[in-house]
Design goal:
With 351 residues, the protein is an alpha+beta fold. The chain is built from 9 helices and 18 strands. Its cofactor is Mg(2+); Mn(2+).
């Protein structure tokens, strides 16, 4: 069976089912399949049933309770969430947050520093300015001016955040600072679901949240889970590469579905905090494999911001398993880091 990974969006359930059926072998243990909506996207879970585990309906109920809890903490736009309240207030006094929020923020800051600020979860003012935020789809006939961009950039800065893990507080030095976890929260959610399944001894599972995947153990026939990386095309479902995962996670970030055009130029939803503008390079998508889905999610965004040259150099330096698809004339080319190539053993399996 092959799961086709899409970029930061829900998977097409029909395609998901076709992929599942394509891998079914008579006599093998068939996985339980669950799905639903969360964080403005979709989630899909497959696991091999074991004796003594809760019924699938109860497993799904617990998964959705978990996701609802995370959403109540990390949603940027829902009223009353931890993040929304932190963003709304302008006080520079410590603000009480959950351990989960601090965990995600700690990882985001670490990746942000390692990437030279390419991943910056304080980028929300720029997201709003460029029309990719709460009022997505707003009139984009007039692009932001240089003055507006500079004003938004003045509100950014990972160094303007003070974390207190012991006291469970978060403090902003800049009253205008705001946080957006959309580049890393789906991966964290996938990790949390995987840990929940482990509690019930459901050790063989695949979890996907918003296109980010974590796979543990094996699928029904004892082989690794197979995850398809899409070609960077407007139409969904064409696979560029199939990756076999066992106790690993895969996250992909790309620029070719969430964008708008003006005067023949494409403006991506992925923004470069240093320039204050949408990314403008040849990289179409980048996929990262790490044990933690949260880490893979954050790194994929960071490398996508940096582009095919700087991103590839950083991925090699950090020892990341990363696969790059970049534009070359009218077509695409690919390249992979040594760590990624080491994961690919033998001929590529067919989708």
């Amino acid at each position: 069976m092959t799961l086709v990974v899409s970029l930061k969006r829900p998977l097409f359930w029909g395609l998901f089912c076709l992929a599942l059926l394509s891998g079914c072998i008579k006599g093998e243990v068939q996985p339980v399949a669950l799905s639903g909506e969360t964080m403005g996207a979709g989630y899909h879970v497959k696991y091999l049933p074991v004796e003594g585990a809760p019924e699938p309906g109860e497993v799904q109920r617990l998964i959705e309770l978990l996701l609802s809890s995370l959403d109540s903490k990390m949603s940027t736009y829902k009223e009353g969430t931890e993040l929304a309240e932190f963003n709304r207030q302008t006080s520079t006094k410590p603000f009480a947050v959950s351990p989960e929020t601090l965990e995600v923020l700690s990882e985001a800051i670490w990746i942000g520093k390692r990437s030279g600020g390419a991943l910056d979860v304080t980028v929300l003012p720029l997201v709003e300015l460029w029309g990719f935020g709460k009022n997505k789809g707003q009139d984009t006939s007039t692009l932001p001016t240089s003055e507006q961009i500079k004003a938004a950039q003045a509100k950014l800065g990972l160094d303007q955040l003070v974390l207190d893990p012991k006291g469970l507080t978060l403090t902003k030095k800049n009253p205008a600072l705001q946080i957006d976890f959309s580049a890393i929260a789906p991966g964290f959610a996938a990790d949390q679901i995987a840990e929940l399944l482990d509690l019930f001894e459901l050790k063989n599972h695949m979890v996907e949240v918003g296109g980010e995947v974590r796979a543990e153990g094996t699928r029904g026939n004892g082989e690794p889970w197979r995850i398809g990386i899409e070609q960077p095309l407007a139409e969904a479902g064409k696979i560029e590469l199939v990756v076999e995962l066992k106790n690993q996670s895969l996250a992909t970030s790309g620029d070719y579905r969430n964008y708008y055009e003006k005067d023949g130029k494409r403006y991506s939803h992925t923004l470069d905090p240093k320039t204050g503008r949408p990314i403008d390079h040849k990289l179409a998508s980048v996929s990262v494999v790490t044990p933690s889905c949260m880490s893979a999610d954050g790194w994929a965004t960071a490398l996508n911001v940096l582009g095919e040259e700087q991103g590839f150099a950083l991925a090699q330096k950090e020892g990341l398993a990363a696969f790059f698809i970049y534009r070359d004339g009218e077509g695409f080319k690919t390249k992979a880091t040594p760590a990624f190539l080491a994961l690919q053993k033998g001929p590529q399996p067919k989708p």
